[in-house]
Design a protein that fits this description.
Elements: E1 14-16, E2 21-23, H1 25-31, H2 43-58, H3 70-74, H4 78-97, H5 103-119, H6 136-147, H7 165-183, H8 191-215
Antiparallel strand pairs: 1-2
Helix pairs in contact: 4-6, 4-7, 4-8, 5-6, 5-7, 7-8
Length: 216
């Protein structure tokens, strides 16, 4: 039996359509949906996805108190609050368009973006095939974080700041906590999504009032 095309050590027992080559089961698990853009019809992806989602949903998170809402903690830091806005904005916009979008899908999108920030690598695409991102909203969150820059109210030379990887991870982990707090174990509903939409509507309302006051 041939050796794994990735590690070149273990026996290659799985054919990977994305790479056009064979992998050992360990490398398949490590690369799957992290570095490899797995096609939907891959049998190993189909077997793995429900298990991975279950792991994410059941993962125990630590929070300061039982009534902890993560966005309150983020709001204490102006830099992180600005980044959090750019993380949640794609979620809010998509959820308003797609009424079937659930807290579970929001959580998976955030986990996707977190993984991509952690890896700092693009996915390997299937040769010769045009494919979109495996998680459309997760990709939108990732791109929004990458483009986000913090600007102070009084701009001085060098005051436009980019975010460190550690800040991005910290912020997205807090928002993941928020999703789990609002979902209260019922991820097929839209408890987090509804409060997110309401919060963004309030921000928009306040912004419009501010504009009116400025004009008068």
């Amino acid at each position: 039996m041939t050796k794994c095309s990735r590690c070149e050590q273990r026996k290659a027992k799985r054919y990977c359509p994305a790479l056009g080559n064979s992998l050992c089961s360990l490398c398949c698990g490590i690369l799957r949906e992290k570095e490899i853009h797995c096609p939907p019809n891959c049998i190993y992806l189909a077997k793995h996805k429900p298990y991975q989602e279950k792991r994410i949903l059941e993962k125990k998170e630590t929070s300061p108190s039982k009534d902890f809402a993560a966005e309150k903690d983020i709001s204490k830091d102006e830099r992180l609050a600005w980044l959090a806005f750019h993380i949640e904005a794609p979620l809010g916009e998509y959820a308003q368009r797609e009424k079937a979008f659930t807290d579970k899908e929001a959580l998976m999108a955030l986990e996707y973006a977190k993984e991509k920030i952690n890896k700092g690598e693009s996915l390997i695409h299937i040769p010769g095939r045009e494919t979109g991102p495996k998680n459309e909203i997760g990709e939108a969150i990732y791109l929004s974080m990458e483009k986000c820059r913090y600007e102070k109210e009084i701009i001085l030379p060098g005051e436009i700041q980019s975010y460190k990887k550690e800040e991005k991870i910290k912020c997205i982990e807090q928002i993941i906590l928020s999703v789990k707090f609002w979902a209260k174990g019922n991820f097929e509903e839209r408890n987090y999504i509804q409060q997110l939409i309401a919060r963004f509507a309030k921000i928009k309302e306040l912004a419009l009032k501010k504009k009116v006051l400025t004009i008068t």
